[in-house]
Amino acid sequence: MDPAPYLLLGLPILALIVGGPLLRKRFSRGASEAGARAGKRFASDRLDTALGVLGTTLVIQAPEGRAREIVASAMVEKEREYVIRDDGAYGIRFVEPDDTVVRLIPVAEGTRLQIETFREYFGFPQTVQPWVDLRERIASAARAQGISVADGPPVRYTRGDPLDDRNARWMRDT
After folding, report:
1. Overall average pLDDT of the 154-169 stretch
2. Angle value at C-alpha 44, between 43 and 47, nearest 5 degrees
3. Of 8, 67, 99, 100, which residue has the fewest beta carbons closer than 10 angstroms?
4. CA 84 – CA 67 distance, rounded (Å)
5. What is the largest CA-CA distance in the chain?
6. Of 21-25, 148-152, 167-171, minimum mean pLDDT range
7. Do residues 110 and 60 lie in contact, with contact meaning Cβ atoms separated by under 8 Å?
8. DSSP state letter for 159
9. How many C-beta neighbours within 10 Å does residue 101 have?
10. At 119, is the secondary structure helix, strand, or coil?
11. Residues 6+ apart with CB under 8 A from 29
């Protein structure tokens, strides 16, 4: 019986036993890094989309006083989500009533509704859908009163200083 064939079979098996954990770590690290890159890309794309939605404005073709009445009527039945603030602005609540602050701005065409500032939670703005819903409610309430609405110019935002380890307040670019 010749030991050479057994030795030739045993060496690759021994190499796999010894080298297997090393290869597994290398492949695992590569997969983790690829997954992290893909996750960051996805989050960045999702954030860009959210910023675009939050930057959408609505022009109510009516004077500011009339626009305030329309906004107030659109907020009825949604006092938990939407808040009329003491300073004349409006709040959209995720956790706090000032998570997103919305203002009416007089413009030549009437009054523009826009977000001034918003807070992110869990590293992402959480009031995107409530903002879309509020704009739709206001547009519907205005049309019901025979007042035209139109999309206004978009607004851009800058991320402010971190409030904690993952979250910050975004401000409107001026």
Report:
1. 87
2. 85
3. 8
4. 13
5. 103
6. 21-25
7. yes
8. E
9. 21
10. strand
11. none
Cβ neighbors of 93 (< 8 A, separation 6 or more) are 80, 81, 82, 83, 99, 127, 130
The strand pair at 110-121 and 58-60 is best described as antiparallel
Structure tokens given for 129: 């859908």
Residue 142 CA to residue 157 CA, distance in Å, equals 27
Taking a C-beta distance cutoff of 8 angstroms, is the pair 131, 53 a contact? yes
- Dihedral (CA of 73, 65, 95, 58) sign: positive
Write out the two tokens for 163: 């409030």
Buried b (16+ CB within 10 A) or exposed e, 136-145: ebbbebbeee
Tokens of 174: 């001026």
For the chain, what percentages of helix, strand and coil (3-state, to nearest 5) are there? 45, 25, 30
State which amino acid sits at residue 59: V
How far, in Å, CA of 155 to CA of 57, rounded?
A: 7
Q: Which run of H or E residues covers position 124? A: strand 124-125
For residue 140, the one-letter residue type is S
> CB–CB of 166/122 below 8 Å?
yes
